[in-house]
Amino acid sequence: MSFQAYLDNAEKASGRTPQELVDLAHAQGFGADTLAAPILAWLAADFGIGRGHGMALVHVIKNGPQISDKHVGTDGTHRDESAVLRLDGIAHR
User: Fold this and answer.
1) Using 50, 70 and 90 to split pLDDT, how confident is the model at 47?
2) CA 43 – CA 55 distance, rounded (Å)
3) How far apart are the C-alpha atoms of 40 and 49, rounded to whole Å?
4) d(Cα 41, Cα 47) in Å, to the nearest integer?
5) What pLDDT does 84 receive?
6) Which terminus of the chain, N or C, has fewer Cβ atoms within 10 Å?
7) Dist CA 50 CA 61 (whole Å)
8) Residues 57, 10 contacting (CB under 8 angstroms)
9) CA distance linking residue 30 with residue 58, whole number of Å
């Protein structure tokens, strides 16, 4: 599953776009210096998001939408189209 697919599935599970979840996380005080565990606990408690999808959100909450280009353009199952993730939601594509 691609990084983007994890975010898309988190959106489907929560009913919130990745950007909305990032904004809510920042409003909760989560940011670059926050450990993953409290963010994951919040995502699970408030939105029912599990660890795998939650870790994708942890990345964008802490680091923004830029990802390593390691899998961009490859043909593996974890391939992403771009090194910049779309946070604006599935409906905007």
Assistant:
1) very high
2) 10
3) 8
4) 10
5) 95
6) C
7) 16
8) yes
9) 9
On whether the CB atoms of residues 31 and 62 are closer than 8 A, the answer is: yes
Contacts of 57 (CB under 8 A, 6+ apart): 7, 10, 18, 21, 22, 25, 39, 43, 49
Query: Which one-letter amino acid corresponds to residue 54?
Result: G
Residue type, 91: A
In b/e form, how buried is each residue of 42-80, taking b as 16+ CB within 10 angstroms? bbeeebebeeebbebbbbbbbeebebeeebeeeeeeeeb
Whole-structure pTM value:
0.91
Closest C-alpha among 72, 92, 89, 93 to residue 3: 72
Contact assessment for residue 60 and residue 85, using Cβ atoms and an 8 Å cutoff? yes
